[in-house]
Amino acid sequence: MRDVAVIGVGWPKWGELWKKDIRNIFVEAALMAIDDAGVDHIDSMYVASMSPGLWSKQEHIGAMMADYLGQNPIPAVRVESACASGGMAVRLGFIEVASGMSDIVLVGGVEKMWTGEDFTAILATAADQEYEAFHGLTFPALYALMARRHMHEFGTKREQLAMVSVKNHANGAKNPRAQYQREITIDAVLNSPPVADPLNLLDCSPVTDGAAALILAPVELAKKISKRPIVQIIGSGAATDSIALSDRDTYVELPAVKKAAEKAYKMAGVGPEDIDLAEVHDCFTIAEIIVTEDLGFFEKGKGGEAVEQGLTKIGGKIPINTSGGLKSKGHPVGATGVAQVIEITEQLWGVSGERQVEGAKIGLAQNMGGSGASSTVHILKRID
Amino acid sequence: MRDVAVIGVGWPKWGELWKKDIRNIFVEAALMAIDDAGVDHIDSMYVASMSPGLWSKQEHIGAMMADYLGQNPIPAVRVESACASGGMAVRLGFIEVASGMSDIVLVGGVEKMWTGEDFTAILATAADQEYEAFHGLTFPALYALMARRHMHEFGTKREQLAMVSVKNHANGAKNPRAQYQREITIDAVLNSPPVADPLNLLDCSPVTDGAAALILAPVELAKKISKRPIVQIIGSGAATDSIALSDRDTYVELPAVKKAAEKAYKMAGVGPEDIDLAEVHDCFTIAEIIVTEDLGFFEKGKGGEAVEQGLTKIGGKIPINTSGGLKSKGHPVGATGVAQVIEITEQLWGVSGERQVEGAKIGLAQNMGGSGASSTVHILKRID
């Protein structure tokens, strides 16, 4: 397998983009990425999106985006793994370049969620429709069950959940692409409207329109055409778990995250102690706590304390979600996993401005679908 | 890139499967394929499906199928390219095995279309929603436009369209997995209810529930574990075109099919004259005529005559759709491209019974999405 680098990125502002449809949103990001990479063509493209059929009555968006991007007749395909669609698309693009099938591959993700459709019902199609959604289990409810159990088993405090949100908003306030560029307080989280006990509105990632795209190429080619440090994908792991939460042995860990991480660490030849920063899937505050434990950054049950001690802030032991996370920067489902890899790439390039993690050399991006039925982990390294 | 073989196939009966939901349908095919290959594990899986969100309110079926197949925690992802989803999934599985990332990969496709939802509206999400579907252009209408133009430019006769359907039903009558295992007559086609002039009901592929799955492995491994002749994927091509028919320069050829074929032939080192049989995407009778021209089997404009002369029958110059095609065996969208590759594989194994093409050594499978905005072409060869 060939070594693969990220050579260009495109990430326009996220938010409620009422004046743009799914194709405009995607194409803007893709053009930015192509321009940023400075390439004169692409060989193949992947479009990650969870549910354009339900939100926009539009399937077949792989071909559609290649068309509107002016890239016909290149191969283009949509990839879907619910909220892990973006991470899975990065993985498939990585495999295609590594295989030698293509040299320059665009991996983009997009979701147009503000269309007037019922997004709670649409998001619930990522859960088990017959055994969960039909009976009224929404995603906030699924993660609330995990939160309650984590609090019960490990004494994780309600305030510690809130601190995840406060930290991520502090980071997002410095990210010009974020949906919510403002700081919040613990009190604001605790006093925001309840959604599914113990989770309040400000424990939940928002509903967002947005896209992100990146360009992959062999490291050998990247060295010839790139003027920035080379950022290589040194590890890619993906794993699945039961789609229904009730089929798991535990609610306080996410086996797919652990397995995906194990594979990525093995391929990369590094361990959690070597990671300088990480983007993780904080769809709800409890998710960040559980995931940082399952990635091996903290002992099981200690994720809440780690946040309280400031270990996951910029400047802390291992900065988590310097982008603002899903909570503050927004969560346009299909785009999320792609944007995570962009945040890590930019940090390793050293171009993250006020959010820069000094001396960052190895970063990790963890993306997750459903209540953890899918997870991907990518490890990136600046090779000097 | 490593050489890749098909080592097992699973294809249960297709039809209106009212007593089965999408997960039952998929798992049955996948278990058959695993059993047929005789493998004790799989490393990764792809699930092709166009629109489980709209038909069954269920996205995230990559992880769900891995779960119900008892295969967690292996990576699993859904692939969507409208009606070319199956062909694209075969391609991605091929790339993954070729890359060295995985050894044994399951590629399955599934569609559960009989759920009570409006399938004409759902299928129209494979067209351009804003510029085609919204204005009332259904798929029969799009292909009817192509048919009228082909008749106008080349003198293709209405009866020749009907002959495609008659031939495919004759083949499907011998395929125990086909939805409609019965022969029909030209008169029956001509007198069936009009759908979109000149296409009648019996020019259109039906609405079908079904799944198909196959197992890919490196040729080197296949030689060790397989008791059948080795069938290798020697060429894989994919291409895209404008999603809206009105954006094309021509209605009488499908540029994405030509491009995908060109790439597949080049990779395989063979030409149309070397192909012993082909499965092509006859979603409508006119599609088979245009596609057999674009694959290089017949001169442009001569596809209708070729059918009339019996060149595409079993025993003819190049048998087309020995399986019965989409027309007779059914078209469960996501499964179609996978089943095409299964039909070719079985023919090359020499196990197709009454449908067997004697001495078949090289076969081709062509899958298509929308009105030709996506196409894949795979070329398979029995290597003795």
List keywords for this structure.
Peroxisomal Thiolase, Chain A, domain 1; globular; 2 domains; alpha/beta; 384 residues; nine-stranded mixed sheet; 14 helices; two-stranded antiparallel sheet; homodimer
Explain what you see:
The structure is a homodimer of 384-residue chains. Chain A has two domains: 4-118 and 207-225, Peroxisomal Thiolase, Chain A, domain 1 (3-Layer(aba) Sandwich), CATH 3.40.47.10; 130-204 and 234-383, Thiolase/Chalcone synthase (Peroxisomal Thiolase, Chain A, domain 1, 3-Layer(aba) Sandwich). In chain A, 38% of the residues lie in helices and 18% in strands. Chain A has 14 helices and eleven strands. The first copy, chain A, has helices at 22-37, 52-56, 61-68, 85-99, 119-123, 139-154, 158-172, 186-190, 219-225, 255-268, 285-294, 303-308, 325-329, 333-349; strands at 4-10, 44-48, 76-80, 105-111, 194-196, 199-200, 210-218, 230-240, 277-279, 362-369, 374-383. In chain A, strand 10 and strand 11 (374-383) form a beta hairpin. Chain A is globular and about 55 Å long. The mean pLDDT of chain A is 98. Chains A and B meet through helix 2, helix 3, strand 3, helix 4 and strand 8 of A and helix 2, helix 3, strand 3, helix 4 and strand 8 of B. Strand 3 (76-80) of chain A pairs antiparallel with strand 3 of chain B.
